[in-house]
Amino acid sequence: MAAAALANGDVRAGGGGAVPRPTNPMVTPLLTDLYQFSMAYAYWKAGKHLDRAVFDLYFRKSPFAGEFTVFGGLEECIRFIANFKFKEEEINFLRTALPTCEDGFFEYLSSIDCSDVEVYAIPEGSAVFPKVPLMIIEGPVAVVQLLETPFLSLVNYASLVTTNAARHRLVAGKPKNLLEFGLRRAQGPDGGISASRYSYMGGFDATSNVAAGRLFGIPIRGTHSHAFVSSFLGLDEIIDKALSSSDGSNKCEDFVSLVENWLVKIQGASSLRGSFGETNQSELAAFTSYALAFPNSFLALVDTYDVMRSGVPNFCAVALALNDMGYKAVGIRLDSGDLAYLSIETRKFFCAIEKEFGVVGFGKTNITASNDLNEETIDALNKQGHEVDSFGIGTYLVTCYAQAALGCVFKLVEINKQPRIKLSEDVTKVSIPCKKRCYRLYGKEGYPLVDIMTGQDEPSPKVGERILCRHPFIESKRAHVVPQHVEELLKCYWPGNSSVQREELPSLNENRSRCMRQLERMRPDHLRKLNPTPYKVSVSAQLYDFIHFLWLNEAPVGELR
User: Fold this and answer.
1) How far apart are CA 2 and CA 5, in angstroms?
2) Which of 162, 289, 313, 541 lies at a CB distance of 3.0 to 4.6 Å from 202, suitable for a disulfide?
3) Lowest mean pLDDT among 12-16, 493-497, 537-541
4) For 54, phi and psi rounded to 5 degrees?
5) How far is CA 14 from CA 19, 119, 229, 343, 445, in A?
6) What integer is the mean pLDDT of 411-424?
7) Over the stretch 231-243, which tens digit does the pLDDT of each residue have?
8) Would the pLDDT of 21 be above 60?
9) Own/partner pairs for 185-191, CB < 8 Å, 24+ apart?
10) Taking phi first (over 0 means left), then psi (-120 to 50 degrees means alpha), and beta for anything else, what does residue 145 get?
11) Amino acid 24: pLDDT
12) pLDDT at 249
């Protein structure tokens, strides 16, 4: 039933209110690396393809020189395995790609699906840390091996951009609006859609991406470009166009008259006298036309010619004319120049208008800033002082310019109930063997203290009981913890043929709320931008002993001559 529901697009309990997204035609069982099929054939040839294997999907280091990551991509992984089935044309292609493989192998591939695969995962939108499995995938080794590349592809970018968005949210602060403007700079349409989805999950408030708005129910926002402003010649053009149409000419003329009158009043206002002269009339015409089209959502781009000498005064004239007609303008957007200085001067101008003309609330009119913003520039604006209410962020957000990839890995940790370990001269690349359970231990102040991994059959940590937490590889790093709250991290999202109850997939809004709650529960020093305190990830004393026993057992003993 679960597979059928997911295959039909019903991917969340209760639907979540969002329009279901169709399966991406590019995400097929062929979306993998050739060596996965090579290994599957070798497993099949050796009669090992049905061996029961357990793989961990995890990462080794948090991105952006930080100490936390936000997990994204789980729903897409579950959608992928729900629809995992080779089509006849895909099998035919594989026959040409693997001409030396026997016919029986392709018959085997034609028969497989993920009905015997189990997936355990940390809930999407959670704060996660290195070495702790984001997902544990159990099933026939050949099938699970074919899931490695697509799962990594679906999780790596999703988690990276969600984390990037969350970092922007943290530096901007809760009261600010964050708008994702990255579609035109994203790595293709798929990258743009994913960026919009996971930026929203990471704490952004809206996107300019209309397709993402339809697919995921994300609020969409946008105004106009410099091209729109420069396309107008003057107010007479608006009136002439209105007169040539069958309706609306009187309304248009009346509104233009209001705008012109307000501009004269602003120019003559004692508190604003001398701050500007004649404004650009094509810009005034563009603002007037846009306000006529969108009187309830008028937001103007004010830097086409000159922000303080033209853009802001022209906006104010149109906004005050709208006010006379019973509407309220939304605000302005700054897309160039010294954003700190211009936002402060604009706020002063708005406050002067409110005081001069008694328009209550005008001083709080929204100021949006864009122009290649990123985490560093927002941090710099905060230190300088500014009056920006909303940030529009594109290139640096969706391309994850500061770090190209998260670097998740997919490692075998058990086969046929026999724990396996991957060794390396680089200790950070040594895997943690066996099927595990993972817990987050909280202290008396409500903050998470440490994540701990235990063997599958070990007793769970208990509130108030003293637990020895050990670094998995460094003997001297250990601490006793008495947790005030214990949270088991991994839940079953795809039970396969087991009797384990399946966890329902939350909606995107629920994942977004989880992300915000999780970051609020973290200690501030773990989240800070500069020199964050490392979050502790540990193993139980029993698992520590077993790791090192297996390590010594598997590592070859050298011989000196």
Assistant:
1) 5
2) 162
3) 12-16
4) -125, 130
5) 12, 21, 45, 43, 35
6) 97
7) 999 888 887 777 6
8) no
9) 185/394, 185/395, 185/398, 185/399, 186/398, 186/399, 187/398, 187/399, 190/24, 190/26, 191/157, 191/398
10) alpha
11) 65
12) 65
Question: Strands, DSSP E only, in 221-352?
Answer: 299-301, 331-334
| 287 phi/psi in degrees, rounded to 5 | -60, -40
Residue pair 357/320 in contact by the 8 Å Cβ criterion: yes
Mean pLDDT score of the chain: 93
Q: What CATH architecture applies to the domain 226-388?
A: Alpha-Beta Barrel (3.20)
Residue 271: pLDDT band (50, 70, 90) is: confident
Do 73 and 154 form a contact (C-beta atoms < 8 A)?
yes
CATH superfamily name and code, 34-165+403-554: nicotinate phosphoribosyltransferase (3.20.140.10)
Cα 488 from Cα 459, distance rounded (Å): 12
With the C-alpha atoms ordered 190, 195, 201, 207, is the resulting torsion angle positive or negative? Answer: negative
Give the 3-state secondary structure of 409-446.
EEEEEEECCEECCCCCCCHHHCCCCCCEEEEEEECCCC
Q: Which of 379, 419, 374, 256 is nearest to 322 (CA)?
A: 256
Position 18 confidence tier, pLDDT thresholds 50, 70, 90: very low
CA 196, 197, 200, 206: dihedral to nearest 10 degrees? 50
With H, G, I as helix, E, B as strand and everything else as coil, classify residue 173: coil
Q: Which two tokens stand for residue 215?
A: 């697919």
Q: Which two tokens stand for residue 151?
A: 């799962």
Give per-residue pLDDT as tens, 130-171: 999 999 999 999 999 999 999 999 999 999 999 999 999 999
Residues whose CB falls within 8 Å of the CB of residue 1, separated by 6 or more in sequence, listed in order: none
Q: 34-165+403-554 and 226-388 share one CATH topology?
A: no
Domain residue spans of the chain: 34-165+403-554, 226-388
